[in-house]
Amino acid sequence: MNPLLKDLITRNWGFKLLSFFLALVLWMTLVPEEKTYSERTLAVPLETRNIPPNMELVEKSVSFVDVTVRATNRLLGQLTGNETTAVLDLKNATVAQEEYALDPSMVIVPANAKAVRVFPSKARIKLERANEVEMDVTPSTVGKVRDGFKIDKIEALPAKIKVRGPESKFRPKDRLRVGDVDVTDLAETTEFEAALILPRAELRVAAGSAKVRVKVTVSPQKG
Fold first, then answer.
1. What residue ranges define each of the domains in the chain, with the CATH number in brackets?
2. Residue 181, SS3?
3. Which residues contact 97 (CB under 8 A, 6 or more apart)?
4. Are the beta carbons of 196 and 205 closer than 8 angstroms?
5. Which of 89, 93, 152, 223 is most buried, most CB within 10 Å of its CB?
6. What are the pLDDT digits (tens) for 75-121?
7. How far is CA 151 from CA 22, 192, 196, 216, 223, in A?
């Protein structure tokens, strides 16, 4: 090293070091918090949107992703995972595709913030073709009608309901059950509202309410 340059660096090095720290403290004091930037990693829900109408989601390997967000210190201090969302758009998805890339461009963040990293970098999403099946509704009762009366008929209104879901979740003998209707001390024909019980959790009523009317027809016993 040039002796002159070396002397310039080492001369009064203690004073120079103190000056550096004073300058650093002064910078940190004078620069407002809203102009200093940092990064923070948040656990963010992974949403799937625009699933094609002829398909059903049957598996999603990732429910949350770790998103690293860059923003001002002030904004980062106020930021929560509820204000940030990772959205996987499936409008061009196919049944054959099962792996989808995850990257910062799919993350929705507040204004003046930026997503810079996402982990993991991919998710396994499985779609199946959708199916709709009209199923018989099978009502049932508990209890005993009033003495001197009998049940002539128990019927669901409507008797059949259309059910939708992934095609692999249907079975040939599937039926819709109805929560037990209590007929204790019943002495006249009555209609009840009851909840439907689907054969599997992946299935749902295609349209309308997941409840039916159950009509219990009662008449006096002869003799």
1. 36-129 (2.170.120.30), 139-220 (2.170.120)
2. strand
3. 125, 127
4. yes
5. 93
6. 877 777 677 889 999 999 999 999 999 999 999 988 888 899 999 99
7. 93, 14, 22, 7, 16
